[in-house]
Specification:
The complex is a heterodimer of chains A (222) and B (486). By secondary structure, chain A is mainly alpha-helical. Chain A has helices at 7-29, 33-58, 61-85, 101-120, 132-150, 154-175, 181-209. Chain A has one domain. A two-stranded antiparallel sheet of chain B has the order 1-2. In chain B, helix 3 runs antiparallel to helix 18, helix 4 (97-120) packs antiparallel against helix 5 and helix 13 packs antiparallel against helix 18. Classes of the chains: A mainly alpha (222), B mainly alpha (486).
């Protein structure tokens, strides 16, 4: 049977998961392209740390490998690739929110509460991490949707998708930490391909409209 | 049979690599040869897979269900490879033609490769990976024309589809969790063990996984309300890409939904998954039928028709009756042929009249003596006119619905399909017959754009009039797999 998580470890894991969610909230209002990318890197770093902590505490050596891979890819490679691809663009993405910062935060709080409590009601138990982390991961996914919806610039929308993937990674640490490493590698490789394609399309968009804003993307209707 | 599976996933990839360095003519010939070859390989799988599953290298597996989707994809791969030769004729004088054609051929082969991989991989995790690869490759193909509209369509497509697939990944993770409770830790989400363990999986996790998968993969299928990228991407992509997007990409994503459906039915019983699919199906069909009545753009019209057909597939599965399931699988094949044909015909119109506006295309018959009637026949086939394949498949689906006691759903299906017929037939007939100023001279742009639709029509006739016995065995076995009777 599953053993309940020891209190110190459970608290550490929950605190890290809460910070992952807070980083997502930070992205809602980041004003600079670089700030947005750094927040994503920070969030990914937290996930790698969480994977390493869980590996140590629960003696799952595969999670060390996952932590290293995820660090290399999401903290180093992805932010570098995105910055490289966008190095010639103006870095201002402030004011791209469709709502005010206060309304965005309230909306995000609303979906967080919904995600947190509805997943909590499912009583899904984990062998590795406390189940509150699962509720938090679903909240991260929902807030990333808010981010993609309310921010009208390509960088925030793309980062929204990447951080959605971080939310899913957090969920996967909780309920699927024993997923074979080869599949984790396939997921990460897939993310890398997606990042490159997102980057290329961001460049195409910037090249054509001379801005990162998506407000002019209204030609296709009906 | 093992070599066939390996060839199917390696040939298109090798062709894509070769197209990076080969001159245009050689790329064209190679793509046609590989496309036709892949279709031949898929056909060769039919007799075996009609009786037993085939697997290779641990991670590859083909059963009747997957071969149906492989056939649809490979058929479109072959015919669009031929069509693309004609499609590029009009671009040959452009300054960046070598670069454009190289990108298009590399992309087409990679796109076909990713779509052939999806039904061949053994397991939900790899299936997700393959579907995500189809998204990113096709997004690059949508933007290849490098116009403002294409850039907009590609961005919306990649963002919405990837966000949807994020949900599908969450669904996959929950399915893993459910499986781990019975199979034990560290398994690779392969289909057979998961299906075997399905009756003992925890219900809540499987329900959650199924809903997330339907919504997530449904984004790529084009289910309402997550269909919004679809008309944009289909209308702005180059025509050969539109044909593959519509005929096979949507179907491959639907295949992913079906895999989750199989497990969900075995775990929680048919009622819940069927209700979910019925709701999505009816909503999609309803939206598409209404939009089809008032369309101004020929490619958007065909895109909405794809949403309509995906709705029909979902409703057909929701009936849960063997004959309806056979109809669904036949529909996948017939829709691929008919929609490929319709897009290829529309592409000829667009090149000839230099517009995508329906209002700008008149007197088609006097300008395009071959393509205009072929287009009209393709649209009639799409609207389920006999003797074409879609008539047979929709007949099976409706008959299945009525025999299974789903009278209301079957009636709604027939009414909405009729509504869609009105929209499609009205517009297509006007394109071909309505008199109008003829601003362009009579004649087909290229024979390469005429032959593929003729092949498609022959396929539709075969499916409609007399489907081969081996194929029917395959469809029956696929339907049995879907119902968990194997």
């Amino acid at each position: 049977m599953m053993t309940p998580a020891p209190p110190v470890f459970a608290s550490v894991a929950n605190v890290i998961a809460v910070f992952v969610l807070l980083a997502e909230f930070g992205m809602l209002r980041a004003a600079m392209l670089r700030a947005q990318i750094r927040l994503y890197a920070f969030q990914s770093l937290l996930l790698s740390v969480l994977a390493a902590v869980a590996a140590y505490e629960r003696h799952v050596p595969e999670l060390y490998a996952l932590a290293v891979l995820s660090f290399a890819l999401k903290v180093v490679i992805v932010p570098t690739v995105v910055q490289r691809l966008l190095r010639n663009t103006n870095t201002e993405i402030a004011g791209s929110g469709a709502l005010g910062v206060a309304s965005e935060t309230l909306l995000a709080l609303g979906v967080t509460a919904f995600g947190f409590f509805s997943v909590g009601a499912l009583h899904i138990q984990s062998r590795i991490l406390p189940s509150a982390a699962l509720s938090l991961s679903v909240a991260v996914v929902l807030v990333s949707f808010v981010l993609m919806i309310v921010r009208r610039d390509v960088v925030s929308q793309a980062i929204g998708f990447f951080s959605l993937e971080n939310g899913v990674s957090l969920a996967s640490l909780v309920v699927a930490s024993s997923l074979p490493l080869i599949l984790e590698v396939a997921f990460l490789f897939d993310l890398l391909v997606a990042v490159v394609v997102f980057g290329v399309l961001m460049r195409v968009h910037h090249g054509r409209s001379r801005s990162l804003s998506t407000t002019q993307l209204t030609k296709l209707r009906g | 049979m093992t070599p066939i599976l390996i060839l199917l996933i390696s040939l298109p990839f090798a062709a894509a690599l070769a197209c990076l360095v080969l001159p245009v003519r050689a790329s064209q010939a190679l793509t046609v040869v590989v496309g036709v070859g892949c279709f031949g390989l898929c056909v060769a799988l039919i007799p075996t897979v009609g009786h037993r599953d085939v697997s290779a290298l641990k991670y590859l597996r083909a059963d009747a269900l997957s071969v149906v989707f492989l056939l649809a994809t490979a058929f479109l791969y072959a015919v669009t490879a031929m069509y693309t030769i004609g499609y590029l004729r009009s671009e040959e004088d452009a300054a960046d033609f070598p670069r454009y054609s190289r990108r298009l051929y590399v992309g087409l082969n990679l796109f076909a490769w990713s779509m052939l991989c999806a039904p061949l991989v053994n397991g939900l995790a790899l299936l997700w990976v393959a579907v995500e690869v189809t998204t990113v490759v096709s997004a690059l193909l949508v933007v290849i024309d490098d116009t403002d509209r294409a850039a907009e369509a590609a961005w919306k497509y990649v963002l919405i589809a990837s966000a949807g697939l994020g949900l599908a990944l969450l669904g996959t993770i929950f399915m893993y969790y459910a499986g781990a409770q019975v199979i034990g830790q560290s398994y690779d989400l392969a289909f057979a063990p998961l299906l075997q363990a399905a009756p003992h999986l925890p219900h809540t996790a499987v329900r959650l996984a199924f809903i997330l998968a339907v919504l997530g993969f449904g984004t790529k299928v084009g289910f309402f309300p997550v269909h919004t990228w679809l008309p944009d991407a289909h209308s702005e992509a180059p025509t050969p890409v539109s044909a593959m997007l519509s005929g096979s990409l949507l179907a491959v994503s639907f295949y992913a939904v079906l895999r989750f459906y199989q497990i969900a039915v075995a775990t929680v019983g048919p009622r819940f998954p069927q209700t979910v699919l019925l709701v999505f199906g009816v909503a999609s069909l309803c939206l598409a039928a209404l939009y089809l009545l008032d369309q101004a753009d020929v490619k958007r019209m065909l895109a909405y028709s794809s949403i309509e057909h995906m709705g029909i597939l979902a409703i057909g599965v929701s009936f849960g009756v063997p004959v309806a399931s056979v109809g669904v699988l036949l529909h996948v094949l017939a829709h691929a042929a008919a929609k490929g044909n319709a897009f290829m015909g529309a592409g000829v119109f667009v090149q000839k009249f230099r517009t995508k506006e329906l209002g700008g295309m008149r007197s088609g018959l006097s300008v395009l003596p071959w393509s205009a009637p072929a287009f009209l026949l393709a649209v009639l086939a799409l609207t389920a006119m006999p003797p074409f394949g879609i008539f047979r498949s929709e007949f099976y689906i409706v008959a299945g619905g009525l025999s299974g006691g789903h009278n209301a759903s079957a009636v709604i299906l027939v009414v909405l399909v009729t509504l869609a017929f009105l929209g499609l037939a009205w517009n297509a007939t006007r394109m071909v017959y309505a008199p109008g100023p003829v601003t362009t001279e009579r004649g087909e742009p290229s024979a390469w754009m005429v032959v593929p639709p003729v092949i498609g029509l022959v396929a539709l006739l075969v499916l409609g009039v007399h489907p081969p016995a081996h194929l029917l065995d395959l469809l029956n076995r696929g339907a049995a797999e879907l119902a968990g009777r194997l």
